[in-house]
Amino acid sequence: MRFLCSWSGGKDSCYAFYKATKLGFEPTVLLNVMNEFEDRSRSHGIPKDILQAQAEALGLPIHFFSSTWTDYEVKYIENLKKITQSYPITHAVFGDIDIESHRAWEEKVSAAAELEAILPLWQGHRKQLVLEMIDAGIEAIIVSCNQELGPDYLGRTITSDLVEELENKGIDACGENGEFHTLVVNAPFFKHKIDVDIESKAVSSNYNFANLNLKK
């Protein structure tokens, strides 16, 4: 019942981690995929030192590997197999909610490493999951977003008021379609808060990113 958590650094993977522990699974190691330059995460654009700080706050090791989108699947499976040789894990936890193609892929790569994929948030109501996460004490900020939201939303904390604001703009409360991505900075199961600030903001491929700095 020991698990690896596919860790983006954002709210969904963090809440899936939390829910998995409530189901009786034991967290053992985190996994994050970096971009080909190895300076920030492939999915959320979060710097490596901040992801490492999250792992330290959780008291867990984190395994990194870098990849382009082209060889992502091959490298993901390779690294899952490496991790199973170092840690006695039986399951892999993912934070997807209702996109069938994502679940199919996660089950495929997990099975290739003889792991069982667990999706604790699966088929949950998107807005309700976010509100539950907030009630659980998970604090997350927006670190990237599309142009419909714009750069002013970078750095904003996910609150029930912000959820209503997003929905009034026609934006999915969970950002499940890629409208925005988040960084968890605190949770009741963190040993300490992750203190970050936004040094600057950038636009890449019509998407806004916060350039984050870890305060030490």
TrEMBL record:
Keywords from the UniProt entry: Hydrolase
Which residues belong to any copy of the Diphthamide synthase domain? 1-212
Q: Which InterPro entries match?
A: Diphthami_syn_dom, DPH6/MJ0570, Rossmann-like_a/b/a_fold
| GO BP term, example | protein histidyl modification to diphthamide
GO MF term (any one) = hydrolase activity
* Family matches, as Pfam families: Diphthami_syn_2 (PF01902)
Parts of the chain that traverse the membrane = none
Domain of life of the source: Bacteria
Matches recorded under PANTHER family: DIPHTHINE--AMMONIA LIGASE (PTHR12196:SF2), DOMAIN OF UNKNOWN FUNCTION 71 DUF71 -CONTAINING PROTEIN (PTHR12196)
Please state what the protein is called.
Answer: Adenosine nucleotide hydrolase
